[in-house]
Amino acid sequence: MAFVALTEGRLSLHYLLGMGTSGWFVAFFSTIGMVSFIPALRLTSVANVAVINAVLPFVAAGLAWIWLREVPRLRTLLASLVAISGIGITVGGPVAGSDISGLCLACAMVLAMAAMTVTVRRYKHTPMVAAAGLSNFMGSLVSIPFVHGIASLSAGDILLFAAFGFLQVGMGLTLFVLGSRLLPSAQATLIASLESPLMPFWVWLAFNEVPPAHALVGGALVLGAVIADVVGASTAKDYPMLSHERVSGS
Fold first, then answer.
1. Domain ranges of the chain
2. Which end of the chain is flanked by fewer CB atoms within 10 Å, N or C?
């Protein structure tokens, strides 16, 4: 919401109130994705969540083809397959016998984020950052009934929650929504798949915990797949519509 206020000024309230049905759809799907993600991590392994999340580019590509008739580039699909392989190597594969509730929540998260990405792409001329900001408030309201022991939080806990809200949820979601307007849905979600192999890197940076060799190999595969797809898409002939939009100023 602060981003909307800084970029739009006095029009901020107008964008929030006038985002229309499409904006509410984005807020709804974003809320479902957020409130499914954390419980999924608690109810099943991180490996399961990461592997299920790796199919997000294919789900987004399928929805975009059905709704927008947006045919995904073969290069992007091949890069997504390489990324799935890399994520599988990074996390070591799904663990058998995991809780079915966590797996269902992870699937719900993938469907919701794919639907949100395609909706943002479909209504790319409608400001959606306000809708993404609204989803954060909606997610908080939905989560309150499940909170236990909130009165016993320490100052350190509150600081960690604030950092998570500002960086992971607030800033991350804002940038993803802005980028999803300009990229095909499959490619936007492919770039988002970098989250999984980067997890060991952040742990190494913060706690000096050296990632295992398989995490480095898997992360290199995902990173290489994303870079190859992005570099391949940088030519004007790949996305003539985007080139026209830049020229026309829209």
1. 2-144+161-232
2. C
